[in-house]
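anyone seen this seq b4? input:
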Amino acid sequence: MAKSSDTPIVEQSASAELLVSFLKSFPGRAWIKDSAGRYIYASDSLLAAFGLTREEVVGATDDSRFPSYARGRSRSDQLALSSAQPQRSTEVIREHGQTRYLFIVRFPIDSAEGGFVGGLAIEMTEEVSALEGLHRVNQQLFRSERLRSVGELASGIAHDINNSLNAMLLGIELLRNEEVDATLSRRIERLARVMKDAASRVTRLQDVVHERFDEPLENIDLRRVIEESVEMVHFVVEKSPTPTGGTIKVAFEVPSLPPILGYSAELRHVFANLLLNARDALPSGGNIVITGELLEDAIVIGVADDGVGIKPDLIAKIFDPLFTTKNTGTGLGLSMARDVMTRMGGSISANNRSQGGAVFNLRFPLPRVASRPESPTQDSQPAPSASSHSILIVDDYEDSLASLKTVLELRGQNVETATSGKEALARIQAGATFDVMLCDLNLKEMDGWAIAAEVSKIANGPRFYLMTGWLPDLPDSDPKRSLVKDILTKPIDLDRLFRILDGID
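predicted toks r here
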């Protein structure tokens, strides 16, 4: 006959022995307290975790033995007794200098001798660490995917912007051949410099989403670069009122400094961006101070403000790509600044000032190796090429196409144009011969790589150069590189193009 549910399977004394055996065998920590919160049982694992003996724990309370944990535990114990329901919780504790995570269940124990609270705790430190690691991996994957999406979007935007800048710079090159007075000539050169800086910043977007090929450093006058940055943002920082009608004053306290190795265009943008960030941190107005210090092996530039400062928990994040605290921010400015400084062998850091506000310190190593000299200012009249070649330009951006054709013709070159790959190939197949082919990458129907592949099949075909407003992330080992002599990024570096043409036999 089956036993009823109220009929014990074993005798009471045996049940007590099984309970004791269970508590001793339990892999976690176990304990029992009376209604006054005194320990009447503590498992060996619990004692070992705190390095205590049974005599030190039994009869003691959390207040006397574990005061740092007493309040929360006593509340949970009382809730388990009053509700007659198990209470589950997670505790983070420090033991032997390490952080440990415990999953705890407290439950009421009915007894003729009164109310008792039992507790079982399983350590979850390894599991939590694994979950945190998985979370970090997921965050990295999310960031990578986000950067990939940004990269795809940026590539299209950058190509269009660089195409426009290319057309404008080619137009400026044509203006250099006109008879203009000294004042207009200086304005033309300043406009050319601003456009080249803009092109450099657009191209540098690739540093955030792709690796790019290194380019040589140049000798630059850091003090002059900072002065030019201040001039670039002078109107929006000092001449425009803040949201509350305040004013901002920029103090320039940078002494004469020795040349450093760097990228002048990118550093102008770095300092301009820091000044704009400082402006945003001064909604009621205030002061921005730029300082410079020459050390034995480096130059340190400080950009400080007396504004709202940076939240301490954000200082470690502000240089991360896509991180921003602004509603209209991109999260790219400081990330790109750190990238520029890293590639120069320097560093950038941010801290809050004791007197209020924030300071960004940029450390530039003093040069120890030879470098590329700073690019000289172009002559107003470019020298004619050493030799003349037949050139076919393929580009569907009419302004760039026409301007580049005119610039090359002024250099004594024989130039024809085509607006598509099909048109260019048809012209060659019809018998036209060319020494050089300058072809845009992003063409409709047939892109530059496809055209290069077709041209490579032609015996004694033209030297093929690819032009693009967005430098492809293409390693040297990629077989595509064998299809072209070189890749020219837009805006086209005319000095480089002229050197290429002069070097062709």
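The chain is about 40% helix and 20% strand. Confidence is low (pLDDT under 50) at residues 1-5, 369-382. kinda curious what u guys think
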